[in-house]
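pls design
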């Protein structure tokens, strides 16, 4: 399945220069969309938008369906009467890296205060929209807000360390907790309502400017999540409700002990017996809130690395068969198509490529990987037909950082031979190569658009702490940069295609 030739920028909303110490769906997001439009970009790619779990990583969430409250704009809540503008004066400025501890301590209380006020004083029309949201989303919302409230009441302890009757979801215990926490559950539901109201408004604004949103779905979910608590039968858990095996990847050139991610693995046999309903719900939800979806760790759908939970490293894992075509045929039937592309980077077997080809799901090419030995040439622009091409991803160093400190001498020689010398910086050589490639979609991280170094790196895999903090500065965006990008989009035939209507249509060709 192909989709229209386009260009876009990878920027997680937390990296926007919003007030409150973290990027959000407020005025800075709308100014960024205006910049995308003036730069003739047709795509804004984000990372997962769920509530943060371990390490503040967007790939480590407490829910596959809920939104991250920190992305809610207090300014827009104030504009709609949820909170007084004066209460925002003490918020941190719209610059500097994200300090998550401070943001949680300062922003969450204001969000809950705003939700309280909304429930007490909102108009009947607004309250009616809220009640409709609750009713339409009860299938995930009720369990999530109860999980979220209980987790807060138990001082963020993992759910399997709560009292046994709650951990094992005994009906009487759930009924009692729901009644005792009724007010808090309503407030937390209002917070989720605010998230999705603001996200829908931002998507609408983007669609009016012919900008599609590319979302991201991680293959695994956290053990300490509403999903595993609500559906323990779908996961490989032991008698103490702990994972018996966990996810990761085997040892390789980058790590002698591999990567032990720690996510519980699925009971694919049970999921198959149930018609993969949980996955259908998950990806239907994702496609309702984004125009196109990047599937993280696509290899895991063919085979996944199973690690005994007691092991501290990934060394003793083994490859186990995943659901393969069976899952995706059910998804295609339920969703009417497969609006996905696959993160198929690293050591990928012919079987994984064959699965992706059979499903007609585009893969990815990352230019930074293309200048090593001959086997790396698969990532170069002339071999990107039917793929999505990147200069780098959120897991890479920036192009400038890679060029100065990460690339080997032979990689730099190969890059100069292929790209030529570039007077306006190596990052522009990469950007031009990506835009001019045969790939259907070209995506460039914002850091590379701005020509920033390693100080702007978003994530260093396996590094504990210090990730996901980067934010750009408002003065980084200017008309000259937008004009340069717009001209490149035009000459490379990547101008955005208008939506057929203001409904959520796909940008498939």
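designed seq:
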């Amino acid at each position: 399945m192909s989709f229209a030739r386009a260009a876009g920028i990878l920027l997680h909303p937390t990296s926007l220069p919003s007030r409150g110490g973290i990027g959000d769906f407020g005025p800075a997001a709308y100014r960024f969309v205006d910049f995308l439009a003036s730069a003739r970009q047709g795509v804004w790619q984000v990372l997962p938008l769920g509530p943060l779990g371990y390490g503040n990583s967007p790939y480590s969430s407490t829910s596959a369906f809920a939104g991250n409250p920190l992305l809610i704009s207090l300014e827009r809540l104030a504009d709609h009467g949820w909170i007084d503008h004066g209460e925002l004066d003490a918020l941190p400025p719209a610059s500097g890296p994200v300090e998550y501890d401070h943001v949680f301590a300062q922003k969450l209380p204001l969000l809950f205060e705003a939700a309280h006020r909304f429930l007490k004083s909102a108009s009947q029309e607004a309250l009616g929209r809220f009640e409709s949201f609750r009713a339409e989303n009860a299938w995930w919302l009720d369990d999530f807000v109860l999980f979220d409230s209980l987790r807060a009441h138990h001082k963020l302890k993992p759910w399997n360390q709560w009292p046994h009757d709650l951990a094992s979801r005994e009906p009487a215990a759930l009924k009692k907790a729901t009644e005792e926490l009724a007010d808090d559950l309503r407030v937390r539901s209002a917070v989720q309502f605010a998230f999705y109201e603001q996200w829908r408004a931002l998507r609408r604004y983007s669609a009016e400017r012919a900008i599609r949103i590319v979302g991201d779905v991680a293959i695994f979910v956290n053990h300490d999540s509403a999903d595993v608590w609500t559906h323990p039968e779908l996961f490989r858990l032991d008698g103490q409700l702990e994972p018996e095996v966990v996810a990761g990847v085997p040892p390789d050139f980058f790590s002698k002990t591999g990567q032990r991610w720690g996510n519980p693995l699925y009971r694919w046999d049970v999921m198959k017996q149930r018609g993969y309903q949980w996955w259908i719900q998950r990806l239907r939800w994702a496609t309702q809130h984004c125009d196109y979806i990047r599937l993280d760790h696509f290899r895991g759908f063919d085979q996944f690395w199973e690690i005994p939970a007691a092991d501290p490293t990934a060394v003793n894992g083994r490859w186990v068969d995943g659901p393969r075509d069976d899952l995706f045929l059910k998804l295609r039937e339920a969703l009417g198509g497969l609006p996905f592309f696959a993160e198929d980077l690293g050591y990928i077997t012919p079987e994984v490529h064959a699965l992706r080809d059979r499903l007609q799901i585009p893969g990815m090419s990352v230019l930074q990987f293309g200048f090593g030995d001959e086997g790396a040439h698969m990532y170069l622009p002339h071999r990107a037909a039917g793929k999505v091409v990147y200069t780098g991803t959120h897991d890479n160093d920036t192009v400038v950082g890679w060029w100065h400190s990460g690339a080997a001498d032979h990689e730099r020689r190969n890059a100069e031979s292929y790209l030529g010398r570039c007077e306006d910086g190596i990052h522009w050589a990469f950007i031009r190569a990506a835009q001019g490639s045969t790939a259907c979609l070209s995506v460039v991280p914002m850091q590379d658009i701005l020509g920033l170094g390693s100080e702007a790196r978003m994530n260093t895999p396996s590094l504990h702490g210090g990730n996901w903090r980067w934010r750009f500065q408002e003065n980084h965006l200017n008309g000259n940069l937008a004009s340069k990008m717009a001209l490149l989009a035009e000459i490379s035939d990547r101008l955005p295609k208008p939506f057929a209507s203001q409904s959520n249509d796909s940008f498939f060709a």
